[in-house]
């Protein structure tokens, strides 16, 4: 079962007839034995193959076979050659360099996806309002940080022949308590991001707040930076200490390393 070709042939037996993705454990079957994947199963009343009743029957034999088969990465058609045990598949695909890029703008409003090369043209065409500053040392000015609710401030910084997207995101945590996340993302791969370092600095009356880190790749997205707190995080009180008339200036310095 382990050789590449026969494994791929076996993997095709796990294809869901509805979405053509693989039906992976727990594998459910209809009363006649046709399988359907666990994403499609809840949306179906009848077996898509024989129109028979679906019921709640697991196919333990197929599950055992599944644990012996290597499944191709879902981005195979984009060029990925990896084949993996089903238990490693989701994790690999999450970080797979062949996964399409989502629009790097924060918020879920733009559903665009494409290759890395298409990201900048997309931003220039569809997000014209984003300001771009040239240079490795710039000021990211967020105006009206006291605006109620969840708000994003976005700008672009261009230096060392690369484009970086700077995001300040405000989230409401509870009544009057907000958290601010400042994220620097490279319009590039994770590997490219590793050759840069950035520093964020807030300056106030006899106070200074500094954060230094490696930029994130836009492949990972703003939300993953926020979830792992891999960004400059501060609360409303800190924001007030550094704000001037409700505006916050964040010094951004990017270096190569
Ligand atoms: Zn399916
Ligand atoms: Zn059936
Ligand atoms: Zn892959
Ligand atoms: Zn977009």
TrEMBL record:
EC numbers on record: 2.3.2.27
Domain spans labelled SIAH-type: 68-128
Enzyme class at the top of the EC tree: transferase
Family matches, as Pfam families: Sina_RING (PF21362), Sina_TRAF (PF03145), Sina_ZnF (PF21361)
Reaction it catalyzes: S-ubiquitinyl-[E2 ubiquitin-conjugating enzyme]-L-cysteine + [acceptor protein]-L-lysine = [E2 ubiquitin-conjugating enzyme]-L-cysteine + N(6)-ubiquitinyl-[acceptor protein]-L-lysine
Molecular function (Gene Ontology), one example: ubiquitin conjugating enzyme binding
Biological processes annotated in GO: proteasome-mediated ubiquitin-dependent protein catabolic process; protein ubiquitination
Keywords: Metal-binding, Transferase, Ubl conjugation pathway, Zinc, Zinc-finger
All copies of domain RING-type, residue ranges: 16-51
Entry GO terms, CC: cytoplasm
Database matches in SUPFAM superfamilies: RING/U-box, TRAF domain-like
InterPro entries: 7-in-absentia-prot_TRAF-dom, SINA-like_animal, Sina-like_RING, TRAF-like, Znf_RING, Znf_RING/FYVE/PHD, Znf_SIAH
Family from the record: Belongs to the SINA (Seven in absentia) family.
Domain remarks in the Swiss-Prot or TrEMBL record: The SBD domain (substrate-binding domain) mediates the interaction with substrate proteins. It is related to the TRAF family.
Protein name, per record: E3 ubiquitin-protein ligase
Protein source organism: Helobdella robusta (Californian leech)
Gene label: 20214342
């Amino acid at each position: 079962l382990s050789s590449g070709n026969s494994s791929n042939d076996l993997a095709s037996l796990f294809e869901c007839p509805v979405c053509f993705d693989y039906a992976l454990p727990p594998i459910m079957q209809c009363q006649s034995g046709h399988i359907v994947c666990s994403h499609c199963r809840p949306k179906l009343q009848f077996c898509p193959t024989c129109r028979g009743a679906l019921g709640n029957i697991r196919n333990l034999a197929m599950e055992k076979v599944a644990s012996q088969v290597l499944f191709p990465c879902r981005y195979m058609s984009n060029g990925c050659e990896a084949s993996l045990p089903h238990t490693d598949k989701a994790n690999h695909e999450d970080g797979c360099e062949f996964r399409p890029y989502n629009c790097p703008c924060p918020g879920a409003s733009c559903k665009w996806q494409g290759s890395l090369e298409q990201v900048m043209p997309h931003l220039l065409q569809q997000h014209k309002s984003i300001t771009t500053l040239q240079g490795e040392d710039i000021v990211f000015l967020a105006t009206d940080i006291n605006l109620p609710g969840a708000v994003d401030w976005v700008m672009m910084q261009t230096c060392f022949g690369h484009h970086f997207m700077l995001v300040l995101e405000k989230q409401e945590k509870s009544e009057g308590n907000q958290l601010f996340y400042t994220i620097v993302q490279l319009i590039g791969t994770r590997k490219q991001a590793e050759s840069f370092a950035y520093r964020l600095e807030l300056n106030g009356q006899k106070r200074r707040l500094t954060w230094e880190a490696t930029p994130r790749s836009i492949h990972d997205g703003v939300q993953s930076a926020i979830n792992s707190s891999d960004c400059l995080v501060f609360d409303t009180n800190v924001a007030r200490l550094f704000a001037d008339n409700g505006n916050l200036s964040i010094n951004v310095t990017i270096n190569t390393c």
